[in-house]
Every structure is written in structure tokens, then in C-alpha cells.
Amino acid sequence: MKRKRVGDRKKVQRDIDEHVGAITRPQSWWLSMKIRNILLVLTVIVLVAVGVIAFLQVIDPDDISVMENTESVILPEVKRSGGISVEEALASRRSIREYSDAPVALAQISQLLWAAQGITEPDSGKRTAPSAGALYPLEIYLAARNVEGLPQGVYKYDPNDHALNTIKQGDVLPALSVAALGQQAVEEGAAALVFAAVYDRTTQKYGERGIRYVHMEVGAAAENVYLQAESLGLGTVIIGAFDDDEVQNIIGMEEDEEPLAIMPVGKQ
Length: 268
Ligand SMILES: Cc1cc2nc3c(=O)[nH]c(=O)nc-3n(C[C@H](O)[C@H](O)[C@H](O)COP(=O)(O)O)c2cc1C
What we know:
Layout: H1 6-58, H2 61-68, E1 72-74, H3 86-92, E2 104-105, H4 106-117, E3 119-121, E4 126-127, E5 138-144, E6 147-148, E7 153-158, E8 163-169, H5 173-179, H6 184-188, E9 191-197, H7 200-206, H8 209-232, E10 234-236, H9 244-251, E11 258-267
Parallel strand pairs: 2-6
Antiparallel strand pairs: 1-8, 3-4, 5-7, 5-9, 7-8, 9-11, 10-11
Helix pairs in contact: 3-8, 4-8, 7-8
Flavin mononucleotide (FMN) is lined by residues 94-95, 97, 183, 237-241.
């Protein structure tokens, strides 16, 4: 029998290697491409996840409510205890018509609005001020000029969410002062609370007598604001002398809302 020479065997092995290489090389190339693609997808997933986490950390959670509804400003939580007693506030309360130029804090505005019409019993919806038949005919607007953290503008107080809803932008206090027969106190305040009433809410139940009730209610709410302002070191005055139509127009009130009082507020 003719034996194969060593050189031949080497050649055969080379042929086999080349042949096998021809089959296996494309397979390993395909595999490495697949791994590369998987790595690419994983890298993209990791980058997106890192981006989302960084975004969530940069955004202040307190800003989110503002971002969801840019028209609405959630007010700072109110305090239920203060520096002076009710007796002290009653004894020192006066109508103040001159204020310093210092800004008023949004937390102080929050406190004043709460004192006027804040909800103190969420289940029943009852508020800081009494209301005939708990019908709550009063609406409160805020004309802001120098309030820290609040752009100049007119806002409407929403007692349910303890929030302010934007009505219009800009400083309306000079115009409001003119409407209040030129009273300087209105123009000098850092802000002004403007009380309006929807008489129907009360007269539907109580008839003509409901008008009297609405006027009693604005008095009660205004006194709450006086006492709260005193406790915060702020000055205020209730103003009843003004042109109704002009005030309604400047503030941007609803047709069925009648303006009843303006209370400018500022640092004493
Ligand atoms: C219904 C009502 C309307 C008022 N209107 C005005 C007003 O338009 N301008 C003003 O400067 N003060 C006004 N005041 C405030 C009173 O002038 C003030 O309460 C009064 O002088 C007593 O002072 P006191 O609040 O410091 O105790 C009004 C008060 C009430 C109760």
C-alpha cells in the first residue's frame, strides 16, 4: 500500500483549514455584528435612563404643579399659629394707609387669603369666615405688584385648592387707585385683595334679605384679614369708596360678580 507522505498530510490539513475557514469566518463576523448591535442598543438604553434620572433630579417637585398648569399657582401651606394672640391683634389693629416699599412674601399673601375665605373643614367645605347658609357668595381677587415669587398681575383665589388662578398680567394698582377715587393707599400697597360677591348664591335662598347677609359676610372676612395682617406685621385698610364698573373692568371680574371692598396690603 502506498503510504501518504508527511508533506501531503500538511497540504490536506491546509486545504481543510481553508475550507472550514471559508464556512466559519462569515459566521463569526455575523455573531460579532450581532453582539455589537446588542451593545449599541444597551448603550442607548443606559444613556436614555441616565438622561431621565438627571432630568427628574434637576426639576424641583414644587415646580411640577406650575408646569402642569401654568395658569395656576399653588399657595404655600398656611400656619395655624402665630406671633400674637387674637386679643393682641384686636387691641392693636388700625386701618393703615401708608406702606414701605418692601415686598410682601407669597406665604404672607397665602395667609391673608386663607384668613379671608380659606377652607378649614375640607369635608363640609366650611371656611374661616361665617356664611349665611354656608352658601359662600364671596370671591376674592389679588392684584399683585410687589409679591416675592409672584409675577405682577391679577389672580383669583380658589379656596378648594388654596391656589391662585391667573386672570391677567401686569400691575393694575395705579388704575385701581384711580377707580378708588384716587386713594393713594391702593397704589402704594404691595398688593390688594379685592372682594366681590355673587349675590344670587345667597338671594336664591334668602330673597332680598340675602343682600344684607352678603354685606355682613364681607365685613367678617375683611376683619379676619385685618387681624391676620396685624399678626404678620402688615398694614391694611378696607376701602369701600370706588367706581364699581371701573373696578369690575380693571380686575376682569365675571358679569355676575359685584365688587364690594378693596384691601391694599403692605409692610408697615
Ligand atoms: C364699610 C367701610 C368702608 C370704608 N371705606 C374706606 C375708604 O374708602 N377709604 C378709607 O381710607 N377707609 C375706609 N374705611 C376705613 C375707615 O375709615 C376706618 O375703619 C375708620 O376710620 C376707623 O379706623 P380704624 O379702622 O383704624 O379703627 C372704611 C371702613 C368701612 C367699615
